[in-house]
Write a structure and sequence with these properties.
The protein is mainly beta. 6% of the residues lie in helices and 35% in strands. It is globular, with a radius of gyration of 21 Å.
Amino acid sequence: MTWLLLLGLAACTDDAPDTATDDTELEDTSSEGLAPPEGDPATVELAGECPMESHIGAFTVADYGDYTIAEGSVSDAIVPVTVLTAGTAAGDCQLFKRENPFCEGGCESDETCGLDGICVPYPSSLDVGQVSIAGLVRDVVMDPIQPGDKYFDTSLPQPAAASGDLLQLRVEDSNYGNFDLHGIAVEPLVLPETTLVLAEGQDLTVNWTASPGRARVELRLSIDQHGSSPSTLVCDFEDDGEGLVPAAAIDALVVAGVTGFPNGSLARRTVDQAEMDPGCVDLVTQSRRNPPVRVAGFTPCTDDEDCPEGLTCNLAIEICE
């Protein structure tokens, strides 16, 4: 998924992102001379996320508060374990479980086990040519970086765009098909300084500062870090400042397993998709924050000192028992 790409690609460089204060004047410092985005941000088509079964790549323009990164990658096929199984649905939320397929005898080093139990070639990264993004404070032009044909630009000013501006990603002269993707620069997400506490049998209300527009707000909660088939709860909210996670969704997530240190993310975002020869690629424009998460009745740990009196740390699952 797109939140794993962010972690891997951001680690590919030691360069510190440029930052600036919130009152930085948004001056056009572009020297690339890209054509401006085509369309009206109020009406341009945004086709949403790619289906998991055909999702082979993603590009992201992501604000993390102190910095903004543009990045992405594309493969020639899907990774089977990224196709999740949908579970309990309640309100605006849906539980998804990762499957762990089994292939008798194992697979070769350049293969992976498919969901049908048959070994398939492990997807290879693709060089899709030069990728450009217009509409930011500074034009972005990215060539693939080796190894792995990764695309990234960590030197963007902060803020990198004015809220509501239209962005356009272009792939031209590619051997796998050309395409354009659009996004809307979103208002930075502002959260209260509170911990999200998941308690069985209780609804959870999530709050943020609303920003009416075309963006949606996505909540992701993961509390089973060491399970054999970990689940993630995904909620899709209107950007009205408040989202409700029903008790039924929380109960299903807890029942699926609690191990390790829980984590969550909240992201205001727009998403567009396009087809290329191997499959579907999308563009996510987002402002993402990671609020602290706690599961009532469970204490994560790395040693016994983290545990309440009378309990010890089960290091295999990092939970006090």
